[in-house]
Amino acid sequence: MGNSYAGQLKTTRFEEVLHNSIEASLRSNNLVPRPIFSQLYLEAEQQLSSLEAGSRADNEEEEEEEEEEGSESSSPVSYQMKPPPEGCCTTDGFCQAGKDLRLVSISNEHIEVPSGFLLVGAKSPNLPDHLLVCAVDKRFLPDDNGRNALLGFSGNCVGCGKKGFCYFTEFSNHINLKLTTQPKKQKHLKYYLVRNAQGALTKGSVICWKGAELRGRQSSSSTCSGTVCQLPESTGLSGSNVSEPPPNLPPGTPQAATTIDHIPPTATFGSAAYNGKESPKQQLVKNNLSALTRPSVLGTLINSGPPKKRHKGWSPESPSSTETWNSPLNPQAPNRIKNDGGSLSSLPHSALVGPASSPMVGSGEPVSVPDNLLKICKAKPVIFKGHGNFPYLCGNINDVIVSPLLYTCYRNSQSLSRAYEQYGAPTIQPISEEMQLLLTVYYLVQLASDQVPLIEDLEQIFMRSWRESHLSEIRQYQQMIPQTFPQVPSQIAPVTSAQLPWLAGLAASSCNDSVHIIECNYSLAEGLSEMFKLLIEGKLIKTNYVVIICASRNRAIDSCIVITGKYQARVLSESMLTPSDYQKEVNYQLVTGKVESLGSFFSTLCSEGDIDLLLEKFYQENQGHISSSLSASANKSTPLNGTGAAVCTSYEIERHQIRPFQLAVAQKLLSHICSIADSSTQNLDLGSFEKIDFLICVPPSEVTYQQTLFHLWHSGILLELGLEKQHLTKQKVEQYVLKLDAEAQIKFKVFLQNSMQNPHTLFVLIHDHAHWDLMSAMHSLYPQTELSTGLVDRLLNCREVKEAPNIVTLHVTSFPYALQTQHTHISPYNEIHWPSSYSNGVDLYHENKKYFGLSEFIESTLSGHSIPLLRYDSSFEAMVMALGKRFPRLHSAVIRTFVLIQHYSAAMMAVCGLSQMKNYTSVETLEITQNLINSSRQCPSGHGLMVVLRIPCTPLAAVAYERLYNVRERLALEDNFEIILGNPNSGITIGKHFVEQLKVWQKIEDVDWRPQTYLELEGLPCILIFSGMDPQGESLPRSLRYCDLRLINSSSLVRTTLEQELGLAAYFVSSEIHTEKAVVNDVLESDPEKLSSTDNEDEEIATEGSTSEKQSPMKRERSHSHDSASSSLSSKASITAFCSEPSPPLVTAGDRAKSPHQVLSNSTEETTNNHERQKQKVDKGAQTATSKHLPPGSEQPDTKQNIKSAQISITSSSSSPFSSSSSSSAPTHNSFILQTSQCSMTKSSKQPPIVFLPKLVYDIITSTDSSGLPKSSSLLPYHSVMWASSFRPLMSKMMTCTEQSLYYRQWTVPKPIHMDYNNRNEGRMDTFHPRRLLLSGPPQIGKTGAYLQFLSILSRMLIRLTEVDVYDEEEINISIKEESDQCYHQPGDTWPDLETLKKIPFDYTIHDPKYEDASLICSKLQTVNSEDRPVSRRQEDMYTHRQTTRMRLSKYAAYNTYHHCEQCHQYMGFNPRYQLYESTLHAFAFSYSMLGEEIQLHFIIPKSKEHHFVFSQPGRQLESMRLPLVTDKSEDFIKSPTFTPTTGRHEHGLFNLYHAMDGASHLHVLVVKEYEMAIYKKYWPNHIMLVLPSIFNSAGVGAAHFLIKELSYHNLELERNRQEELGIKPQDIWPFIVISDDSCVMWNAVEVDCSGDRKSDYTWTERNVSLKHILQRIEATPNVTHYALIGMRKWSSKTNTAEIKEPFSCCHVHDFIMLNVDLTQNVQYNQNRFTCDDVDFNLRVHSAGLLICRFNHFSVMKKQITVGGQRSFHIKSKVSDIPVSISPAQYICAPDSKHTFLAAPAQLLLEKYLQYHSHRFFPLSLKNYRHPVLSVDCYLNLGPQIAVCYVSSRPHSLNISSSGLTFSGLLLYLCDSFVVASFLKKFHFLKGATLCVICQDRNSLRQTVVRLELEDEWQFRLRDEFQTANAKEDRPLFFLTGRHI
Asked: How many CB atoms lie within 10 A of CB 680?
């Protein structure tokens, strides 16, 4: 009958099936054999579904299978095997040729296996412990996923070698399997056989037949696929599940086949595993023969492609078979479809029904879908597969929709998340299938008739149930308690499959047949057939959900859930459409004219005739004499007239202004940028950028684009950043904003080129509205014509942007969720969230406006609030629902749009006088229209309200625009309000009349001006039809009053989608107190953090009225349903209209009066506005009276004017709609009446807009979970992401934005269509882009202003980084300077003349402004008046209040550790040739007699600097530091080593001299204290360190200077000795060193031009020069070695010509000096000094007769560094660690007293005490500058009000002539042996002058008094002895004071 040749398998297969079918039918009791074609072409893969599979032994599986199969048959007939040929072997384990096939016997034999064949093990029922070895063609075996096995069989016998078995039946006979059931290769070929290391054949892995894997473990990302036919599945094996995802679809896979699977699991139930019930597993069919004899020949279409022959389920006429299946797909299609979220195309639903993907294969008898199902039921039932197997559907499959989403939900809920795996599998089991199904029934039962099931709800129910049942185990594991006690059993008894139908029925019994349970005995096919039958018979009219359960004891359950409710089925089926398919479907219905039936239906509604005829009649009647009341508004709209009529002054378009919030956010952004720059990763080098440039990317909406240009223009940022000059043009501004459309790439390339060409410019790439278009560039959900799709990915994620070190990307969005997935590019540390305005009840940012966003809108709906801002229109919903039933084939978007257009048309007609039309609209639409039309009448200038009508579908928006436009024209309202069609792809078009109005209001004179943004429509009365699938960042003006969102796509429920629609209404309300505040404040002042509140009955607003007016429970309950007024009545009217019955009056005054609670609680239905609400609180009776006066239909939302207009009648066109008759309660509200004449626009700006929503959306938005979190927040965040697991914790209301971000980062993953899909991080941090930030904040809150402000402050910071604060102070004591007309040098002299300089007298006076608080040094020639001295400053003022100026760093500046640039990387030690730690420590010792011991210093010398030193050859001991020769000359070499003493400034000290030295070679040594060595080495790894001995850890700068000088002299001696051996004279060795402060930042040189006519004429300029230039100039000075000290001026901007006139002077030098260590060998720094040690040293040098020269043409700039230095010394108590402020008066005390000792060096206490309190020792000297204190051999600062006279006791020293000077005091500080009594007796003192002697101890004090014979002239008292406040171990200094006799 056939052959085994693979090429002819089709024929072979057909013959085999035909043969089997005939054979089975002959043996069968059943009269109808199974159709051959069903067997042949629709083979379903076997599905194993129980959770216990795999845990049993194989033989047990088989036994069970056989038992099950046997038990199912009513009359079992065993399988008749063909009798074996005579004489052949029939022994088990042997083939008919008698050869042994048992694995144990032939495992070591060589078996010849033909190419393409594999050895497999077959199981014989008679030999359960043995495997029989067979060779099988591998094409007939499945792949690893249980797929792609060819039908049929081809095998060889390995025993006898017989080949060519092409039937498994034949082969099983040959190997003696002796089967009692139909032979199946799937059942009996069990294992692959493999050879082990020893070469023996052993049992290998299980053959993975058709999905025999664990379903529960299947990856949640692999979704099932719903294809064109639902296929039955054979359930031969009970038990296991699918564990691996199906393989990627082959390219030929039809698109529709897979779309359903990937519907975003959030949309209502359709996209969200809707409420579905699990489908119990099917039992085998009743007829045992059909079950036993039928081979499993149903294959999955998903693998095999389309059927090869026509079949009943594949109607060739169906568009799905032609358009969908045969349409060529693009190469990415398979992947795209598989993961995106499934587009159910708009084609007939045959494309949607069909075979589910692998886990859902059909089985059993096919179920026929009845004809005319849709026609009869008025809806397409949606079938959700649940558990187990699903039968094959045939017949009218276009009328049903099948979805696997519920199955996916069940499966995901059975896979424990990783978070719980740690608890151990045996302890914690997933929720059972029975429990899942039962919980689903419970969920469906509690749904209201207008609610739609949500997958998120179901997942949360499963999660809660599972957690509760395993609470004890989870707690136990979470607390890490060892299991020493028995396991607590689960508290809930498990539900068995037998109990399930009964329990489900019990649960459903209470729901009034809303949920119907069908129990089947054998398969789901029975239940589905019954369900279809009930539908056709009309018995399920009240039923919304049918749950079909097939459960038995022996097998797992099968189940499915059918949505039969017309509303629910419609919503769910429509939710399965992708946005593009939704548009296609609507377009298709519009183009094909299917909506005409709807239009014709509307025309029959009105009893007066067709609406168009009524309009035409009205037009004809009123043409030429339009109602004056309405035309008046048009006349009034020309506000300015010569008569001085009233003009509205409240008009104002807000220009760019920065609010406190925006500034705070900008600063947060800046701090994040700084933290990126400060991190050790060096991803952003802010120091290398000189300026800012930017590009703002916006979605391709023309309005958003123009709006961004508008903000940019008015912000002034382009001028501030210096990017443009004063005359801005629009074209220039447009360069900085990129619209992401087809032309974006060209502009973006320019941006990239700029960034590459300007490496020193920081480019900020701002991606505004960043949640828009997150498509991967590789995928596209949209039609190929939309080139912009995936553009963000192509541009912003391109390699150039990622790698450019000077591009920072800032994503800005209100809905960041899709950028917060597991694969995000943005680090959580780089997220900036908009701050909350309140923290612990404190208002953090005082703003004059209050933001109204989603949470405030939701809060307004809670009981206790007066005006609900969110509402729904129940009459509109009722009309839509009724029409939906009447027109089941029309998309609900079409129906909703046409109904709403009808409502608006009727409302306009009603307002214009056709009062009969008010019955054909809803109260809400009527009030919107009435307020819109009348709004411009209330304002003398004609300002009006804006109504936004949101119609996402562009074709429908165009239809609405056209219709409303025509109605407006017919009603002659074209000058009353404008209708604007807002299309994202085009600009704004409005009529000329309204343009002129806007120009007048906005004072615009440009003739060609047109509004380009919605913000410019401020005050224009208009209906804005806002189209486009998603808003793209457009802002709306403050005149917005109504936001009509009734037409938004309510079936696509995704958090981002919902929130961005509601974001249109986000609004800033003026928070100035106004008269209407009383009730509105309930809303205005609600806490934005609270999304809900409890029913606080006792806290209702009793303060606003009598306490008896508290809301009753009934009232509170009513206020929760904000369908506006008369919802029930209105909907009654609508419904009766459809039923062609006369409609009753809309509402009567009597009805209104009977239900005061409705009036009180409802918002728009009656005239309860703010004023009335107050009135009602005060006077309930008055309120009722007011209500009675209201005629039908006068409900207005903006009814503040209603107080004054109780008599308003919309029926009257002759009288003004706003008559001034007042109601009975008017007198009590005079203040409110005054308000009513106010401009509507002004009033609307003080209230947020009112938002109308679809009921479905309203319910989701306003319902909250137990924590108070709105349900919308727990929806799937975005279309292109999916949940990582159903087992995720619930979000919480208390979550901050940061916590929400972390939640989404953990629990969401991007789909393959998402641009982040390939950014896998797998727990690593390196997938975060280092220069990418995310700014998120609520919509319309001011993010644009914030990021523009950020650009501004970032630019200022960059400039600030290139600037420093330098001290800019005039020299002090200028008036005291000796005035001399004598000029020693010419102004233009380059170098000083040695002889001339010797003639210049030394200027003792200190001129450095940092010594403003120091004592004046007097010489005989100076006369000082007391007024010449400044007032002393406080101690801290020395540093904080010194005058500074900001200077731009030049290219020759010195830098701190924060500077990085390419040039100085090597200098800083970042050179790859040298490791950071490559430096060595060297000791260097020398003896110094004055210290009395050997000094040991340590050098840390980096390898790169060792060439500056000499080391001994054998031991590498440091010998000396190399010194150059005096005669050396080189342009690139600095001869003088530079020493910089520093403390506490490892980060801020300016030690990077690379640029200052202009790259010249130089030796720079940092002098640090021992305890700071490590930190300095870390920050400056390539610098030489000189480490001071530990005894100097608490010493001052004097010690550092002392050791530098002594070390340098010792080194000079060593170098002289070393180089003398080389023949160099000692005097030729360079003797100078540079001692520099660590704050010297730049150096300047004065250039003098002496080209004037006279010799004395000259001009000068000062410029910044390199330190190399200055040092080389000084080093080149003639006879330079004769100078002891050389210095330069301190820079000041106030330097005058007199200072420059003499180029060289002989005076004090500070901060930056060149010191000749040879000449100053015998002059030392005082190592004990903390302050003024340089002044002290200068005086010593001068008195030693050495030359000091200051180069006045050179100056040094000192940077203000506020850390370290002298401020690192803190004087504190030694007793306690508590910081207590200690005044300088406490720094000394009496000896042996119990004074608190201080933890500070004695010398520091002495100096600080003398600086502030020396007047206690020298009272006569205070401000007595003519009689200074005589200071011998030292200069100590005695404060600015005491002058000192310095004299040296050394022989031959230069001192001032003291003859004629009388001193007011004498200071002897640690005087040495050179001071003798005779020396002191030369000086004269005032009577009563005081003496102060300071010594190291009390003994030396007495010895000094005796040795100097002080008692001869000075009188001492015992109480005049003091000491510094040190403990004895700290060696205090001692004082003795006395008076001159």
From this structure: 5
